[in-house]
Design brief:
Strand 9 (212-217), helix 7 (222-234) and strand 10 form a beta-alpha-beta unit. Helix 2 packs across helix 3. With 270 residues, the protein is α/β, with parallel strands linked by helices. It is globular and about 45 Å long. The protein has two domains: 3-127 and 191-268, Alpha/Beta hydrolase fold, catalytic domain (Rossmann fold, 3-Layer(aba) Sandwich); 134-188, no CATH class. The model has no long low-confidence stretch (mean pLDDT 97). The relative contact order is 0.16. The strands form two sheets. Strands 1-2-4-3-6-7-9-10 form an eight-stranded mixed beta sheet, sandwiched between helices. Strands 5-8 form a two-stranded parallel sheet. 39% of the residues lie in helices and 21% in strands. The longest helix is centred in the middle third of the chain and has 19 residues, at 170-188.
Length: 270
C-alpha cells in the first residue's frame, strides 16, 4: 500500500500529515484528546478504496502550536489546498467533527460525504452537569499535574460515565492518555488563539446538504448523545448509528464494526 508522510505550511503552522492508498480523497480529522494515530485501525481498511489523508491538527501530535489566531476548519482548507485536493469525503471525531461541520458550511462544494463521530457542534449548549471527575480534574490542572489531567480525561471520554477503566482495552486507554498529554502540554504553552466560527454551526445545520452519517457510542457523555440527536434531526440528509457498549472513540474500541459502517455508507454515495 502506497504511504507517504510530510508537512504542509498552512496558515503559519507546519501541519504533519500522512497519505495512504489511491482513489477519492477521504480525510480523517481526530478528536481533541487524540492525534492522527487514533485512526490507526482505519487507514489500511479505508486505503483499499480511497486516498486516505490523516493529519495532526495544530497543537496535537507532531504539529506544533504557533502564535496567532487560527481556526481548525480553515487549517483543513489550507491543507487540502496544499495537497491539491479540491473535494473530499470527511470523517471527523469529537472536536474534529466540529471542524469538518464548520468546513462544510463554508466550503460546501468541497465536501462529498460527512461522517460525524461523537461530534462537537459549534455553538451547541445545554443544561448538562459536569462529569463526576470534574473537581479532581480542575485540582490536578491547577497543580500542573498534566499526567493526572490526561488520565482523568481518559476516564471521562474513553471509559465514559457508565464504565470503569477495567472495562476498556488497556492499549486504547494508554494510547489516548499519551496522545492527550501532548495536547495538554501544547495547550499549557499559551500559544495560539482559536477563533470561534461566526455564526456557529448550531444555527446553520439545515444548510449542510452533504450526505451525513452520525455515529455515536451509547456509553458516551450525555452532551455528546444530545449533540448526535440534534445532528440527526437537523441535518437534511443524515442518518444516525448508535454503537453499543462504546464511548467517545468507537473507531478505536470496535474498529471492525466501525470500518464496516463507514465503508458501507460511503459505498452508497458512489
Amino acid at each position: 500500500m502506497l504511504r507517504r508522510t510530510g508537512t504542509a505550511d498552512v496558515n503559519g503552522a507546519q501541519i504533519s500529515y500522512e497519505i495512504a492508498g489511491e482513489g477519492e480523497p477521504l480525510v480523517l480529522v481526530h478528536a481533541g484528546i487524540a492525534d492522527c494515530r487514533m485512526w490507526g485501525d482505519q487507514v489500511e481498511a479505508f486505503a483499499g478504496r480511497y486516498r486516505v489523508i490523516r493529519y495532526d491538527l495544530r497543537g496535537f501530535g507532531k504539529t506544533a502550536m504557533v502564535e496567532g489566531p487560527f481556526s481548525h476548519h480553515e487549517d483543513l482548507r489550507g491543507l487540502l489546498d496544499s495537497l491539491g485536493v479540491g473535494r473530499a469525503h470527511l470523517v471527523g471525531c469529537s472536536m474534529g467533527g466540529g471542524a469538518v461541520l464548520d468546513f462544510a458550511l463554508r466550503h460546501p462544494d468541497r465536501v462529498g460525504a460527512l461522517v460525524l463521530v461523537g461530534s462537537a457542534v459549534s455553538g451547541f449548549e445545554g443544561d448538562f452537569g459536569p462529569p463526576e471527575q470534574w473537581d479532581e480534574l480542575v485540582a490536578a490542572d491547577e497543580a500542573g499535574d498534566l499526567g493526572r489531567v490526561s488520565e482523568l480525561e481518559v476516564r471521562i471520554w474513553v471509559d465514559g460515565p457508565g464504565r470503569g477503566p477495567e472495562e476498556v482495552e488497556a492499549g486504547v486507554r494508554d494510547l489516548v492518555r499519551e496522545m492527550n498529554l501532548i495536547a495538554l502540554e501544547n495547550e499549557a504553552s499559551g500559544l495560539g488563539e482559536e477563533l470561534p466560527p461566526e455564526p456557529p454551526a448550531v444555527d446553520r445545520l439545515e444548510e449542510v446538504l452533504a450526505p451525513s452519517l452520525v455515529i455515536v457510542g451509547d456509553s458516551d457523555q450525555p452532551r455528546t448523545l444530545a449533540a448526535a440527536d440534534l445532528l440527526a434531526r437537523e441535518l437534511p440528509n443524515a442518518r444516525k448509528v448508535s454503537m453499543t457498549g462504546v464511548a467517545h472513540l468507537p473507531n478505536m474500541e470496535r474498529p471492525d464494526e466501525f470500518n464496516r459502517i463507514v465503508l458501507d455508507f460511503l459505498e452508497e454515495q458512489a
